[in-house]
Amino acid sequence: MKHRIAILMSLTFATCIVLPVSLFAQVPGSSDDQSWQVLAAAHARNLSHVKWSPVADTLPNRQGGFFKKGQEYTGVPYSSVRSEGRYIGFDIALRTFLAAVENPQSVLYTENLTGKVPNAAAYYGSVCSAYTSYALGCGFPVVSRRYGPETNQGIVLVEPQTAQGAQVGDVIYTPHATETSGSHVEMITAVVRDKEGRVISVRVEESRPPTTSITDRSAAKFDAHLATKNKQLFRITHLDTWRGDNRAEPLRFPNFQLDATAPTINRALLLDLGDWVPYIRGNPVKFNVMDRDGRGLKTLVIRRGHEVVEKIKLDTPGVHERRYEVCGDYTARVIHADGTESQACEFAVCDLMLRLPGDSISLGKEWKVEFGSENIDVIAVYLWNSDDSYGRHALFLTPEERQAGSLTIPAELLKKPGNLQVWLIGEHKLGRLKFRKDIPLVR
Q1: What is the 3-state secondary structure (H, E, C) of 66-115?
Q2: Going along 375-417, which residue ranges are E strands?
Q3: How is 339-367 classified by DSSP, letter by letter?
Q4: Does 12 score more than 60 pLDDT?
Q5: What per-residue string of b and e applies to 325-334 under the rule 16 or more CB within 10 Å gives b?
Q6: Same domain for 300 and 249?
Q7: Residue 129 neighbours by CB under 8 Å, 6+ apart
Q8: Where is the domain boundary, 348, 377, 393?
Q9: Residue 198, Cα to own-chain centre: how many angstroms?
Q10: Which end of the chain has fewer CB atoms < 10 Å from its terminal CB, N or C?
Q11: Dihedral over alpha carbons 406, 409, 411, 414 (to 10 degrees)
């Protein structure tokens, strides 16, 4: 059965008014219709304009050190979380990040990916590719070196390569200097013209350390910016052609309407992963009972569906750790001293199973991935060749493959030997989970 393949890339996006996500389905994607460009800028604004303040001094900053406790920041933090952490927008909703920020015992403050994952710091974050792919309505991030007309259809080089040729929705690509170095993408989110129609300023938004960045440049300064580091100005002429099968619409994430809605954060308790979040079966779930409004504490009640799993007597605020071996959708509530219930923390316990063939994969031969899941839908298998900067592929599963619990990898898909990361990606209504195995890819 034919499966859907998306090559991951790296981009960056920006700002606008919040519009209904249903507009995407109405957009033909032609170069004459600016609707999808406006909507993409609105999506990007979900991540680039959000404001938050750390409640502890231990949230790692990709620029080095830590974000300052009590200081307000704009835009989500930069962190290449890959399979170890979770991308904001793709793996978790924005509200989960905002909940984790309010919990001094959350993974944002207790976990540090610096030195463990390249280009990473905080457990939740974004990068230029994730940020721009989110705004473009992609199902998964797309890596930057797969960007441009040489590797994709529906995109062209803009002429002239100046501010006078710029339009909202255009992207600025900075190519990699060497085979192993990184690349970068920014997005144009506003263009201001004078009465004669000449461009006088251009707004560019991007994800870079420490958080997303918004820069308004005069036409002259924009031209100077574009002239550095071999930058190229690209225009997506047909969105659906450019995205191919890598579209958010059939998936639960990104969830633009949810991300555009300000959440009500639980003030009685929060989880180590925040709130509204899935856990892998058997992993610790840490409940931080805080009682921030001083309403008094009596009991922590944990339910799976409507069934009470446990009642924990409370005397003082503090952390309670549990592990759950039964998959399902859970809630946790504090019963206050006066008998009233707090807002519920929502979480799910899920499982992913992945089986690879033997001890290695032979280059040029097809092979099979087998998988299973519980309380979560498997949506894709993602392949990442650590020794091939172009060898990154997201394979979306057909209903038949999902039912069979297996996927055949085409013989011609992977081009070079190396260490192959195989990620199984599952999606629950509360977020995505990834399960990873590594295997040598040999000639």
Answers
A1: ECCCCCCEECCEECCCCCCCEEECCCECHHHHHHHHCCCCCHHHHCCCCC
A2: 377-385, 392-396, 406-409
A3: SPBPPPEEEEEEEEEEE-SSS-EETTS-E
A4: no
A5: eebbbbbbbb
A6: no
A7: 8, 9, 10, 11, 12, 141, 142, 143, 144, 185
A8: 348
A9: 36
A10: C
A11: -160
Q: Which two tokens stand for residue 346?
A: 């929502």
List the CATH number of the domain containing 387. Answer: 2.60.40.10
pTM to 2 decimals? 0.90
433 and 387 within one domain? yes
Q: What is the number of alpha carbons within 13 Å of residue 409 lying toward its C-beta? A: 23
Q: 294 and 241, same structural domain?
A: no
368 closest CA partner among 355, 379, 380, 359: 355
Strands (E) across 103-243 are located at 124-125, 155-157, 171-174, 184-193, 199-207, 212-218, 232-236
Residue 338, number of CB atoms within 10 A of its CB: 8
Whether residues 344 and 374 share a domain: the answer is no
Task: Please indicate, yes or no, whether residues 233 and 301 belong to a single structural domain of this protein.
Answer: no
Return d(Cα 299, Cα 313) in angstroms, integer: 5
Residue 264 lies in a domain: no
Spatial contact of 160 and 1, defined as CB atoms under 8 Å apart: no
Do 375 and 341 belong to one domain? no
Q: Tell me the pLDDT tens digit for each residue of 81-121.
A: 988 999 999 999 999 999 999 999 999 999 999 999 999 99
pLDDT for position 396: 95
- 344, 360: one domain: no
Could you tell me the residue range of the domain that residue 286 belongs to? 269-348
3 state DSSP class of 189: strand
Same domain for 149 and 76? yes
pLDDT at residue 147, as a whole number: 63
Tell me which of 348, 371, 401 is where a domain ends: 348
Residue 1 lies in a domain: no
* pLDDT tens readout for residues 206-244: 999 999 999 999 999 999 999 999 899 999 999 999 999
pLDDT, mean of residues 66-88: 96
Is position 3 within any domain? no
Number of independent structural domains in the chain: 3
pLDDT at 319 over 70: yes
